Amino acid sequence: MSDHERNARSDGPDPTGRFFGDDRDYDDGGDYDDDDGGAPPVRRRSRLRRTLLVMGIVVLVLAMVVGGGLWYLTDRYAGNIARIPDVFDKLDPATRPDAPDRAPGEEGVPLTFLLVGSDSRSPEATTGTNATADAGSQRSDVIMLLQLSADRTQAFAVSFPRDSYVPVPGYGTTKINAAYSYGGPTLLIQTMEQLTDVRIDHFLAVDFVGFKAITDSLGGVDVRVAETTRAFGVTFTQGINHLDGDEALAYVRQRYQLPGGDLDRVQRQQSYLRAVMATVTRDNLLTDPGKLDDFLLAVTGSVSVDDELSDLDLVSLAISLRGLNPRNVAFLTIPVAGLGMEGSQSVVYLDEPGSQQLYDYIQQGTLQDHLGEFENLPAVPR
Q: What residues form DSSP beta bridges with 381?
């Protein structure tokens, strides 16, 4: 057979009207109505079957890719976070504040975390996946109430000085950080809910070892210092200081040589968190897979959360926060009446009317509209 004949055979119709090389199903003997567009019913059904089959394969492949990606994220990052068991189990539901209602026009509700930085002096981890001690076996050096708005586009963190003199259930009025030592996360949550009448949804803790690991994974952070000071063998000069993990830890722990003592330390802790967010944004971490992976592994391997926050919850939360701009995160300090002494201990007295007003705004979901009424983190803390 010549090339011309082969081409004619492959391109032209056979005696039945089929094109050679065309394996589609035709109804050779059936009648059909030309008003139907000239397409035989069997042909339409066959094409439909093939279309549905292709669509099914595409959907299956996409599901496998998305599912595999979700599994990878969940296992590598969320699955890397240590869980603290039974944090909320011993709380009496009848005595807890009510959960917030969904506001008109909102699909979700605000989400509130209690964040704690442990003041463990141990060189070994007490939080995260390498923890060697129970959460709450030390006192809390950092206490923040963090609330995410219902639409996850705004957030605020309210710091409570660790020496705040407040009622602790079962122990009378004492320093708030003692609650963590006496009864771990559960008693601290109970203390905070009783004090603020704000329901806490989740608990997160990090210790000094984890704090340093997170800082070093970023290559350090930049903070601006108002005046030169020295603490824990580190000198902080006036102006911008680039701090590694050990230096950043000294920065957030210092209170001596600072005029406001514990109150200035609270602002340094807030300043550090602001610096971390600025570093992530400035270094375009989200566009550098290697650096982002190192950072996420350091964070997830250094913190511990309550066991009611599942891996899938964490991934879903991370996705929902993709629209949160660091500029929309406000840092506040609970209103303070002054400093004083209780026996041999220095304490911080809260401004009860001012604090109650702040709690009311949180409960109403309107704090973002009243930030100017409270002490915000200054541009250059001491």
A: none
**% of residues, the chain, pLDDT over 70:** 75
CA angle 18, 20, 24 (to 5 degrees): 55
Q: Domain with 283 in it: what CATH number?
A: 3.40.630.190
Q: Do 34 and 166 belong to one domain?
A: no
Token output for 61 = 């492949």
Q: Rounded to an integer, what distance in angstroms lies between the CA atom of residue 259 and that of residue 14?
A: 98
pLDDT-based confidence at 289, cuts 50/70/90? confident
Mean pLDDT to the nearest integer, 182-210: 95
Check residue 49 and give its pLDDT. 57
Indicate the Cα dihedral angle 330, 331, 336, 338, nearest 10°: -140
Q: Provide the mean pLDDT of the chain.
A: 80
pLDDT > 60? residue 244: yes
Distance CA(365)–CA(147), nearest Å, equals 10
Calpha distance 258→317 (Å, rounded): 37
Beta strands at 172-175 and 165-168: parallel, antiparallel or unpaired: antiparallel
Helix, strand, coil: what percent of the chain each, to 5? 45, 20, 35
- Is residue 293's pLDDT more than 80? yes
Contacts of 169 (CB under 8 A, 6+ apart): 187, 190, 191, 194
Q: Is 366 exposed, middle or buried (0-12, 13-18, 19+ CB in 10 A)?
A: exposed
In 151-176, which positions are buried (b, 16+ CB within 10 angstroms) versus exposed (e)?
A: ebebbbbbbbbbbbbbebeeeeebbb
Q: Are 324 and 153 in contact (CB under 8 A)?
A: yes
Tell me, yes or no, whether 382 lies in a domain: no
Residue 36 has pLDDT above 50, yes or no: no
Residue 253 sits in the same domain as residue 277: yes
Take residue 24 and report the two structure tokens written for it: 């589609």
The DSSP secondary structure of 5-26, one letter per residue, reads HHHHHHHSB-TTSPBTT-----
Burial of 103 (0-12, 13-18, 19+ CB in 10 A): middle
Q: Are residues 92 and 155 in the same domain?
A: yes
- Torsion from C-alpha of 292, 279, 303, 217, nearest 10 degrees: 60
Q: Which has the closest alpha carbon to 136: 92, 171, 186?
A: 186
